[in-house]
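FAQ: What does the model actually see?

It sees only this:
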Amino acid sequence: MLKKEVSGEAIAKSMFEMAKLEVPIICIVIGEGSSGGALAIGVGNKVFMLENAIYSILSPEGYSSILWKDPSRIKEAAEKMKLTAKDLYDLKVIDKIIKEPDDEDAFNKICKNLRKEIVSSISEMKEMSKDEIVEHRYQKFRNMGEFIKI
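And it is asked to produce this:
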């Protein structure tokens, strides 16, 4: 128990310090971003995600085990968790979905697309002051997700 509390505190402190950095932060989810440590990815000024990647603080197996005490409900959990690139783009958690072509040159095409987005983002943010960079990151983080009043 103590180890998890220390780990959670370390993640929170890391995110707090990262949020104050006066330089642009660009985060990219390329595979499976999960666990509490994945939270820090959300602190970026820009967050990109490959279209077939997933991003969540918990695996669908863990979610279904905790919520329903039934790890076999993975598919249902994954749907509820909204962990796909499209879901997260719609929820304003990520800024851009990077297409993943299905051909023999896919890796090079993905790298080229990522490079284009990174260069474009750096060019956009280099015009910002240090305070504007921090404020941009703060506002982006504050505007993530969707809240439904019941």
